[in-house]
Design a protein that fits this description.
The chain has 34 helices and 27 strands. By secondary structure, the chain is α+β, with helices and mostly antiparallel strands. The strands form six sheets. Strands 11, 12, 19, 20, 21 and 22 form a six-stranded antiparallel beta sheet that branches. Strands 13-17-18-16-15-14 form a six-stranded mixed beta sheet. Strands 5-7-8-10-9 form a five-stranded mixed beta sheet.
Amino acid sequence: MMDSEERERTYQFFLEEVSELLQVLETGLLTIQEDCNPAKIHDLMRAAHSLKGGAATVGLNSIETIAHRLETIFKALYVETEIDTELETLLLEAYDCLRSPLEQLITTGSFDSETALVVAESTLTRIETRLGDALQETDHYLPSSSDLGVDLVESLFEVDVTQGIEHLTEIVAHPQDYNLATELRSQAEVFLAFAEMLNLPGFGEIATETIAALDASPEAAKTIANLALEDFLAAREQVLAGDRNSGGNPSSALLAFSQKPQLKVVENSTTTSLAIIEPEQPKIAAETNSSSLVLVPSNSSLIPFEASAEPSEPEKETIDPPTKPKPTANLKIRVDSQRLEKINNFVGELVINRNSQILQQEQLTTILNKLQNRLEQFQRLTPQFQESSERISLAPNHNNQNNIISSGDFDALEMERYGQVYSLTQELVEETMQFEEAIDDLVLLKRQSDDTIKQQQKTLSQLRTELMWARMLPLKQVLASFPRTLRDLSVKYQKPVKLNMIGTEVLVDKGILAKLHDPLLHLIRNAFDHGIEAPSLRFQQGKPELGQIDIDAYHQGNQTLIEIKDDGGGLDLEKIARKAIERGWLSVTQLATINQEELLDLIFKTGFSTAEQISELSGRGVGLDVVRSQLEEIKGEVTVKSIPGKGTTFTLSLPLTQTIASMLVCRVDSSAIAIPATNVREVILPQAEQIIRSGNQRMLSWREQLLPVYRLGDLLEYRYPAFVGSRNQALKNIASSQQETLPLLVISQGKQDFILEIEGLSQEQELVIKPWTGKMKTPNYIYGCAVLGDGGLIPAVAPTALLAYVREQNSSNQNHQKDSTTQAASEEKRLVPTALAVDDSAMMRRILTHTLEKIGYRVLTAKDGWEALELLNQSPQIQLIISDLEMPKLNGLELLHRLRQNSRLAQIPVVLLTSRSSAKHRALAMTLGANAYLTKPYIEQEFLAELRKILGNNQKHPLEVQCKSASHQFLSSSIA
């Protein structure tokens, strides 16, 4: 009887094994008609047997009954080898009678056992009736190893012997948890039985000598266990390497323990006697720290031999035999996915901290360089100062009449005078030298810190990689049900189709895997219905009547690719074109200029179908647009290729991981976005003459291709300014391009390439991508927030999805109108005004931001005049400046003076808001060009009324401008 805890653990073990055993059954049954061999039947029988035994252990009597009857049916197939479609279908139905309640048990924790037995009874009885006499012969037929196509010796040593050795390894490693002698004896007896069954005398001799050694020296059980384990390990390696005659041999060290005591003549200086001498036992000698062991009966009058202090030469050779490393089992454990997700989040936090460290290290480098420069300047001035101080110190002191030197005893040139100035100078020189040494130490420490961060970065990268693979599951968990689905379709519609699957062990992120089933199933059904022709038509075309669908999965770079290919007739381009014209997606004129790839892409549009009539498979209004949308949810892509008469291939591209990625941070106007580095094939700094214009579209010649150039800022709806001074230190590394032309990114989208123009670019860096949360729906091309080193957030943009989005928006227009439409939309977005609030008080900046946002402004903030100038250079869309008067570094009047000296910035209205109310300050501000001079604290309505006067009646009021970008609305509350 098991206690409740043990029963629960056994129950969980059973449930974990169920899915694998069911998969063995389904896979075997799906191919049993075409390939019914004893080895396959044996696998089916063992799977059913395991389910029967497991169900009996945990008390699932109905499952035990069904599995037992199914096991007997499989035994009958050893005799009944003629399996037609009818019997195959019955066997699959019997399998379903076992699968359905088990899957219900796994999903809900229970099932109706009576119903399961009733449902199974009818199917199992029909099969048993069909097999008839074959069932009666099952007890008289046992397949041989050759029938099963297996090497029984290898099979036993790979599984049973290996398990026994792993058990020995465990008890040797933790002898305190076991009765060592009993466990070792039991395992040796099992191995002895294997040796006799397999006719391996050497392996049997190891087991025999182990038992004999335990009988002779039970107190040395631990040593004997170590020796036996080494011998069994060596024997296993020999057998798996091909030895079928011996199976190893016991070592001399083990044999030494198994030998019986012998009588031996013992001599000393006074007498000769007999003593019982044990064989040499190296381990015992070592453990008892004695050089020999003599046993004499207690009632004997013999004088025992006493070991001399210096043993003889043979005795000196008593040493421990070399020990082999203990074997380590490749154990597998099950880890809850939520726990893995938590670990993954922790790794993400470590990456964020690492990026922060790198950013701080860069800032430290900058400060250290400045410090070294200042020290060098100071060192150049120090000799001059020292020389001047010495000159002053040595000059005669005419004012001091009581000076000893000037009294006539000494000439002023005969003795140096060390006055206060000179002493301070020398002290300054010494402090400078110590300061220089401190900086050298700081430089050395910084280099060591750099090395530590690099090593940390390497280790973290390895940890991230290992964790990424730990989160993966094999693709076969999704593909497992597809052969059965296709088989049932083939039988139902009388269209024989075979499914080949390659790469079922390819690992896919668990979160992605869960969402792959429906898209893949849709494509399989689509290939069966639309792709594979009827058998008669295939025969006329010279094709085999058996159609074929292939699923091929593999990793490429940081993506997983899954190809679904059929050998059918290919996509009907004429039907696709006709349907596109009927739907109004294309005009006849456009059809003449569109390429095949663009035409094929139309099959993914909502509502597309070429089915002539509605059936279970086709014409139900659910098309390939669902496949594309489901792939986009997991940031994947689907493309299609087709060859008329040869077949169609759908390719699914999936990201390996969605948590941490190599990203390029790009400047777009005053904003910043992150783009996956894997999407960028090349970064180009072109010459002006390399850009050519075709109508409204700019083009660039790249690798013998003429690629369209899109300004990223024109494509994006996102306009939240990210360059807001010191709050985003990580963005300061993104310098604006100083070239005449802006940097270009070559983006790859399948076989189609295009170019994005940006304003600035950072180095490639690993960033944590945080998914969107909350109810705000974002455009599908923004798939998360990238976390910068200083904690700032910027949107992570999928460029291919962005371009697809823009094309979708402009699909009704002519190709040459797309660019102008995008530019017009961009100009409309730029009407949303931006104001700059400058104040050294954080509270005041927040108050001003709140006030200005009420009337529709986007607000940037700066804490002094210098920071304001930086923002003005980075953000040309600023239309209003509200500035304090008294600020550090650069005050309001100085800021105003610099603004009026710049022709572009001089046009921006400036309002000074200060606590200084004197007429003198006001007059000076207005003289320097301020548009208004207001005092704190202000009344909001009066403040806004003053702004209306300043801006004038002819300027569009900010309240009338609406921000249409969902991404802005979300990020402005999340990042600001």
